[in-house]
Amino acid sequence: MPMTTLTDDLPAIYGALSAAFGHQHWWPAKTAFETMVGAILAQNVSWTNAAQAVASLESAGMLDPGRLAAADAGDIARLIVSSRFYNQKAERIREFARVYVTEFQADPAVMAATGTEALRERLLSLPGLGKETVDTILLYACEKPVFVVDAYTRRVFTRYGLLPEKASYDRTQRLFADNLNPDAELFNDYHAQIVHLGKTVCRKSPLCDRCPIRVVHRSLRCAGAPE
Known about the structure:
This protein has 227 residues and is an all-alpha fold. The chain has two domains: 9-24 and 148-215, Helix-hairpin-Helix base-excision DNA repair enzymes (C-terminal) (Endonuclease Iii, domain 2), CATH 1.10.1670.10; 32-141, Hypothetical protein, domain 2 (Endonuclease III, domain 1, Orthogonal Bundle). The chain has helices spanning 9-21, 32-41, 47-59, 65-70, 73-79, 86-104, 108-113, 116-124, 131-141, 151-159, 169-177, 184-200. The longest helix is centred in the middle third of the chain and has 19 residues, at 86-104. Residues 1-6 have low confidence and may be disordered.
């Protein structure tokens, strides 16, 4: 499908999604630190599995930065089996907790007060924390206006011709950063709307007749839609 330059449609796409699905109230967590840990646990697994691991940590009294920083990785791993790759994630969570305690005083306000680019680079330097995980922490825990990109984002906006095939993370992120006001609340719910659309409508075998984006602009036609 040829690329379109109709980036003015991005706000309209969000409006259509939010009107269809309602505010998503994402990220589901009681505290900023729970959001941070949940972002690591959600790597390469469904949120249901990640949420089970979060609940297990909480039940064991381990959803605490100081305790996680001092814990044996094996003890953490046993509590997060539902999240898959639990041995690697245990190491990542422990190292993240150590940095959170030693560099940010285990205080989300201290972390959030750090400049966005500097904080992003610091978190990206930690083992096992990639761009999606770090940007999730920045947006949902620190309320930084950083757009989170995932596989659903690429799928939806590639199908509608707003992104090229196999667009990189950075290229996809720029689509939103360059064409929307840098608003953390907007980025928060926009990403959540895309996730909901990807799970329910814009699946690998899409249900195009149910897609709210179809009403935005006549030139936006999904590549997955039937002729």
